Amino acid sequence: MFNPSHPGEVLKEYIEGLSVTDVAEKLGVSRVTLSRVLNGKASISAEMAIRLGQALNTNPKLWLGMQADYDLWKAEQNSHIHLKPLFA
Q1: What is this structure's pTM?
Q2: Contact 73, 3 (CB under 8 A)
Q3: Is-contact 68 75, C-beta < 8 A?
Q4: 64: closest CA among 47, 77, 76, 81?
């Protein structure tokens, strides 16, 4: 996996042309919460994934999968874990 986008970047494309305030209201979240996701400062939670799925007619697993890919990539970039395999 090579440098996946934060799901907030993808979400920006979905809501292009709409105001953050309007989208946040339709999602039932605060403008600050949505802005943090859009700016990559907050993760997509399971609850947010459900909200996005319903509002955008997408599968919540899409959003959670993007978040998991992003989180794993970031963790691998900063990992200092070097373990020996349990089984040879």
Answers
A1: 0.90
A2: yes
A3: no
A4: 47
For residue 75, the Cα-to-chain-centroid distance in whole angstroms is: 15
Q: How far apart are CA 36 and CA 46, in angstroms?
A: 16
Neighbours of 76 (CB within 10 A): 10
CB-based burial, 18-44: b 16+ in 10 Å, e otherwise: eeeeebbeebebeeeebbebbeeebbb
**pLDDT tier, 2 (very low <50, low <70, confident <90, very high otherwise):** confident
Q: Which amino acid is at 66?
A: M
Cβ-count burial 50-74 (b if 16+ within 10 Å, e if not): ebbbeeeeeebebbbebbeebeeee
- Give 33-62 pLDDT, tens digit per residue: 999 999 999 999 999 999 999 999 999 999
Consecutive H or E run containing 72: helix 60-77
